[in-house]
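Thread: sanity check for a docking pose with fe (ii) ion

Original post by kr_44:
Hi all, I'm comparing my docking run against an independent structure prediction. Below are the sequence and the ligand SMILES. Could someone generate the full complex and paste the structure tokens? I mainly care about where the ligand ends up relative to the chain.
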Amino acid sequence: MIDATQFKVRGRTVPAELCGELRESSLSDADEVLQQRLQQDGYLFLRSALDQDEVLAAREEIFQRMVDVDEVASPAIDGIATGRSCRADVADDLTAFWKSVSEGAAIRQLAHGKRTREVMDRVYGEASRPQDYMWIRPRKTGWSTGLHYDHPFFVQNSDRVFTAWIPLGEIPLCDGPLMLVEGSNEFDDLISGMRAKDDDVEKSPEFAKEVAFFSEEWDRDAIEFAEERESRLLSEDFDVGDLLVFKMTALHGSLDNHSSIGRVRLSCDVRFQPASVPIDERYFGPNPSGQEGTGYASMNSCKPLPEQ
Ligand SMILES: O=C(O)CCC(=O)C(=O)O
Ligand SMILES: [Fe+2]
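Reply from moderator J.T.:
Ran it for you. Here is the predicted complex with fe (ii) ion included:
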């Protein structure tokens, strides 16, 4: 059972009737069941799907890099923010620093390794392929990610590209895990409006943020939005090894990180597609340009943690 009092968005506690838990699926379900559920709900929540040692190794690897720049206290695995940073003094190039964190051996083993790929093969019903460009998100207290759809960032092959959101360690509700809007993969007014702008997004990549609803104009309060749509905000106390897969048409953001011990919420999100589908070159290779053409530089995580 989730504790609704821990659901907070932008400093407000979400009314209990607007909170819900994610529907849990299991790897013991048949592949077809998993695939149908993803299509129906817009997401698939799999407990204990990934290798716990791989998850913890990735957590330690990333937080150790943040210990080295005085952003996280030792021991790294605890992930407690210091409130300080010497990243800008130590790293000549902040983008290169974050790219190297994102390319660490342990995080790549987790996100691109055999175990995760086998799970994603089942989700697709065929061989899958992860994108090289991936987001690692350390999120300090006070942070929440605004509501958005991922679709505009991955317009090409978008019906076959899925986001794999991986908690790197336990993420209880108070640490601000990912949150999905129930039924949002069927909000046809929003989805068709977004798809209608695909051509413009392709021509002008910076437009994607606006269309994803990240724009200031759309900057919607998740609580008000859920009320208006008579929907609910779904999340979970995530454990080591859990995996959340969702479609580009699932509206999501995160809860507030209101950890009372200043713990940084750490996750990674990587997009998969069937191996048989042609790749979108922006997200593959040793120097992916990403949607905005600036590679890793467009990621918030490139900034020293206190400035994010
Ligand atoms: O982890 C978050 O706060 C947001 C993640 C996200 O937007 C995604 O995985 O697409
Ligand atoms: Fe997203």
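The chain has a mean pLDDT of 95. Hope that helps with the comparison, let us know if your pose agrees.
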